[in-house]
Structure formats: C-alpha cells, structure tokens
Write a structure and sequence with these properties.
The protein is elongated and about 85 Å long. Helix 2 runs antiparallel to helix 6 and helix 4 packs antiparallel against helix 6. It is of the alpha+beta class and about 425 residues long. Strands 1, 2, 3, 4 and 5 form a 5-stranded antiparallel beta sheet that branches. A 4-stranded antiparallel beta sheet has the order 6-7-8-9. The protein has a 4-stranded antiparallel beta sheet with strand order 10-11-12-13. The protein is built from 7 helices and 28 strands.
C-alpha cells in the first residue's frame, strides 16, 4: 500500500516551492533566530528525504531507491546556502531572489530524474493490442497498459484542462499519486479512441475546423503528437496494424457518430493501406480474425482470412457485444420499457439470455455476470447464476473492461473503479 501522508500526496515540487517561499519570510521576521531556522530547515530536510525514499520504493528496490534519494536530495541541501550567505551579511538585499534561483536551478534535475522513473515504469508492461475493441466501440475514452490507465478528461472548470491524461493505479484499481501527482497530462483536445502499444499512444482528436476526428501518434515521454490521418473513427491497434473507419467527406451536418464509412487497415511499418470491407458501416468490433459491423441492414461479420461477409441478423440491435466468439445483442421495446439480451452462438443459433424492465445503453459480460449501463447513467450488475442484482455506481457515461478483471466507469470528469 502506498502511504497517504501529505508529503507523498504533494511531493516533491509543491512541498519544495512552499519551502523556498516560507524560508525567506522566516529569515526576514526572525533575523535573530538563525539557529532555530537552521534546525527547522534541517528537520524538514530529514523528513523530506525519508518520504522521498518511501515514494521511490513504489518504483525501485531498496538499494536503487536509496541511491536515487541521496543523489537528488544532495541538490536540495544547496538550498541551505542562502542561510550561510545571510549569516555572512554578504547578500542581505537579494535573499529572496537567491532562494528563487536555487529553487528553479535544483528542482529541474530532480524533476528530470522523476520523469525518467515514471516513463520506465509505464513501459514495464507492453500491450500487443492497443485497447479492448469493445471499449473502442464505446468511443474508447479509457485504455490500460500495465499499472497505468490512459484516459480522456474534459476538466471540471476550464477548457484548457481537456485532453489525454495518464494515471497509475494500484491492485484495487484506484488511482494513486506518482511523486505527488495523480494525473499526468500528455496532450490537449477532445480525445477518444485511445490505444496504447508499448511506448506509443494512438488516439483521435476532434478537429473543429473540419468537423471530423483525426488520428494522432504520441510517444510516451515526449511533448509533441504526430498527425497520421484525417477523418477517421473507431481506431484499433493490433501489433503493427491500425484498423479504422474512414469517412469519404470532411464534416457533415449530422453527428460524427451517425456517419458511415469503410473499414481500412494500415501497416505501421511500411504505411501500406488496404480496404478490409467494401460495405458501408456505422461501427465495428475487431475480434481476432473476424470483424463484426453494423449498418442500416443489420449486423454482419467478415472473416479476414476468407474475405467473406456473412449476415448475423437482418436488423439493427439497440447494442451489440462480442465475447468468446459469440455475439450478444439487445433489443429495446419502448412500449413495454423492456430490454431483452440475446446470444448468437457462433453467429448461427440465437438464444434469449435475459430481460430487464429498463433501457440498457451498454453492457459487458464478466465471469457470468452481466454489467450494464442504464439510460439514467446507472451501472448495475446481474449474476446469471445466482439471480442477484446489484447497483454499482451512478453518473457513468461509459463502461470499459480490461482482461475480464478490471472494470472502469467514465463520465468526462473522472475515472471510477467499478470493482464489485
């Protein structure tokens, strides 16, 4: 368990800036208590070293954590130099400026070390698939790699907060601080379709001028994203291939989600592009060597090896979901206010699974439990074996699953653990 004290949460930059701001004030008003100031400063430094070491243990073994702690905190010791200069009465008038310069000069190397540790920790586990294809169908606002989640955040007050962020999570899927910061901003803008593969993050960002989504590539640790392609949606990264839905025209009077396009695949090594499906579609789910997709005529799948398109159902369901080679879909009857979930086994036999007296927007299946999102942004779980219904969370816009173990909710302003 990571420690929850003040220094861990706000360490290191904020604590050090507070230190460099308060010390000149102390010296100004307690000129005759230099010894007391020195004792307090030394005590602060000891506590700071202790908590630096505790934070580093989340990323390094004891030996490496101790070595890094000594290296970076030896620079902090130089912050005591102004006390000596003041005692010598050599720079009485510029004491505040000296503290400020030392803060700027010695916080940068510390931050560089911490950034390097964070980047290395982010890349311990590397995905082969950028995101769960079901998550991409649900707009892909969250992706996960190792102990980190990458997500779109719209901010709580200001437009400049909107962008792509990363956070570290613990074994309980709760966001924990990394050197004092619970969020790391990677890119700005209205971001979705997030895929993380190794050191690269692929995502789409809304282009206000052209009224479409563009695909970008971002390298973890860098500051600039590279534009790959315009006017695309439902982006899936699998190894060295990028699958996407490409639209013919920029912009539309209709919503971007209502547009239809063709499915393409681009090789990320030689940039060759192949059209995968010649039928227009609204959205799709990539599942191993098959692609499931919908248009106004129903739900279809195409075998990527045989290149054959087959019909599963000849109508458009309220929602559909693929799990272990079987397709699940829901039909909503507005007059009865009833949602029925069906299962299509191997895309042939169709069986009714269960019905609910409410409208279901999204659902996933985890360990024989159906977790669904209602029209009123409530997440509910239903155990198919025990027939037990449980209300998990409220005010959720989308639900995202990873490896049938992690379930997260997203509502534009926060990521919520839906562990049940």
């Amino acid at each position: 368990m990571i420690r929850k004290d003040f220094f861990i949460k706000h360490f290191p930059i904020r604590v050090l800036f507070i230190f460099y701001i308060i010390m000149p004030i102390f010296i100004t008003y307690f000129k005759n208590s230099l010894f007391l100031i020195f004792v307090l400063t030394s005590l602060f430094f000891v506590i700071y070293c202790k908590n630096t070491y505790s934070s580093l243990l989340e990323f390094k073994n004891k030996k490496n954590a101790f070595s890094i702690m000594l290296t970076i905190n030896s620079l902090t010791l130089l912050g005591l130099i102004p006390l000596y200069l003041y005692k010598q009465k050599s720079m009485d008038q510029n004491l505040e400026l000296i503290f400020l310069l030392i803060a700027i000069l010695f916080l940068f190397p510390t931050q560089i070390v911490f950034n390097k540790i964070k980047i290395d920790n982010m890349l311990i586990t590397r995905n082969a698939i950028g995101n769960n294809p079901i998550n991409i169908k649900n707009k892909g606002y969250i992706s996960k790699q190792g102990d980190y989640i990458y997500y779109s955040y719209f901010g709580k007050q200001y437009s400049f907060e909107k962008g792509l962020y990363a956070s570290k999570i613990n074994n309980d899927n709760e966001i924990i601080p990394m050197f004092g910061f619970c969020q790391i901003k990677l890119a700005s803008g209205y971001v979705n379709n997030i895929n993380v593969v190794g050191e690269f993050i692929y995502y789409t960002k809304y282009n206000k001028k052209l009224k479409c989504y563009d695909i970008y590539k971002y390298k973890i640790g860098k500051t600039i994203s590279k534009l790959i392609m315009r006017n695309c949606n439902f982006v899936n990264i699998v190894s060295n291939n990028i699958y996407y839905l490409n639209y013919e025209n920029y912009g539309s009077a209709d919503s971007v989600e209502k547009k239809q396009g063709y499915i393409f695949c681009m090789n990320l090594i030689d940039n060759t592009i192949e059209q995968v499906c010649f039928k227009m579609c609204d959205n799709y789910i990539l599942d191993k060597n098959k692609i499931y997709f919908t248009n106004e005529s129903g739900v279809f799948y195409i075998d990527l090896c045989e290149k054959l398109i087959k019909t599963i159902i000849n109508f458009v369901p309220h929602y559909y979901y693929v799990h272990e080679n079987d397709m699940y879909y829901s039909i909503y009857d507005s007059e009865k206010n009833e949602t029925i979930i069906y299962k299509s086994i191997n895309c042939r036999e169709i069986h009714k699974i269960i019905s609910f007296n409410e409208e279901i927007i999204e659902f996933v299946l985890m360990n024989n439990i159906i977790i669904y999102l209602t029209l009123f942004e409530e997440v509910v779980s239903y155990d198919l074996e025990k027939n037990i219904k449980d209300h998990i969370a409220f005010k959720i816009s989308h639900i995202y699953s990873f490896d049938c173990k992690v379930l997260l909710g997203w509502n534009a302003k926060e990521v919520i653990n839906l562990y049940f």
